[in-house]
Amino acid sequence: MASTTAGAAGAPTRSRDDAVPVYSKPAVTWAGVRKYIGIAVIVIFCLGPFYWMVVMAFREVGYTFDNTLYPTHVTLDNFRAAFSTQLGNHFGRALANSFFIGLCTTIIAILFGIFAAYALARLQFRGKFVILGIILGASMFPGVALLSPLFQLFTNIGWQGTYQALILPDISFALPLTIYTLTAFFAEMPWELEEAATVDGCSPGQAFRKVILPLAAPGLFTTAILAFIASWNEYLLASELSSERTQPVTVAIANFTGSVPHEEPWTTVMAAGTIVTIPLIILVLVLQRRIVAGLTAGGVKG
């Protein structure tokens, strides 16, 4: 047993037996090396195209096909050309259109999806799993099969080229994803907390608003991000259902024209693509703290 000795001031001092143990560094194993190599390969595979897009976005037009892996002949002219309207490109208006369409799609999909998912997860009724299967099948339905019917329908009712012609199809694809994701999230929640709230005097609506919604914050924000990104990146339906006034960024970038006829403005397209990713990055960074806060608030003490 370790012993103590009195110091000059009478305070006990540690003997050599109480010395802090020295831990040896863990040996490098081949399994650990393979893990980090795999992570590096995945990161390079995912971020490589984005990095090359950024490099080309800052490169002069005359060096478009330069294979140098680092930025050379740096210029900001490509970003100015992306926002220039002299060549018929309306990129700024397209950014506003995409934000408006994505925001409306996300709000409506979350508003309806949260109540539908709560009912499917909380209530017991006949045919519930059939409804979930239909919702999942609707999310997998190919959009190209709906393109001609939607075009004909919106043309007949005078909606062709309007914002509602773009928002409604996006909702039809975002809503099944929202319902299915939130249903799985609600099913894992501790329903004892809701029952305790009703015992304390809360109505079912108050229990849902004051107990369930705060606990569901991580799932809500994650689903909202997925719905917004899906609407932001949609191109197939928007290319046929939008007009020059309502076209989103995906269609606007595809219709970019260069200063020379029959020339594809690759550097301008890359600059526009870099700008398009900024709202998504900001969205994830802003909502990341809310997601973590929701996860912390959802912890249940034993």
Description:
The protein is mostly helical. It folds into two domains: 29-75, no CATH class; 90-297, MetI-like fold (Orthogonal Bundle). 65% of the residues lie in helices and 2% in strands. It has twelve helices and two strands. The protein has helices at 30-57, 77-83, 91-122, 128-139, 144-156, 164-187, 192-199, 204-215, 217-232, 236-241, 249-254, 266-297; strands at residues 4-6, 12-14. Strands 1-2 form a two-stranded antiparallel ribbon. A hairpin with a 5-residue loop joins strand 1 (4-6) and strand 2 (12-14). Helix 9 runs antiparallel to helix 12. The model is unreliable at 1-11 and 294-302 (pLDDT under 50).
Gist of the model:
With 302 residues, the chain is mainly α.
- At CATH level 2, the architecture of the largest domain is Orthogonal Bundle
Low-confidence stretches: 1-11, 294-302
Strand ordering within the main sheet = 1-2
CATH topology of the largest domain: MetI-like fold
Number of helices: 12
User: Main sheet, how many strands, which sense, barrel?
Assistant: 2 strands, antiparallel
Q: Can you count the beta strands?
A: 2
Broad shape: globular
| Series of H and E elements | EEHHHHHHHHHHHH
CATH superfamily of the largest domain: MetI-like
> Separation of termini?
38 Å
Kindly give the count of domains: 2
CATH class of the largest domain: Mainly Alpha
Strand share of the residues? under 5%
Rg calc: 28 Å
**Average pLDDT figure:** 81
Helicity level: 55-70%
Which structural class matches the secondary elements? mainly alpha
For this entry, what is the oligomeric state of its chains? single chain
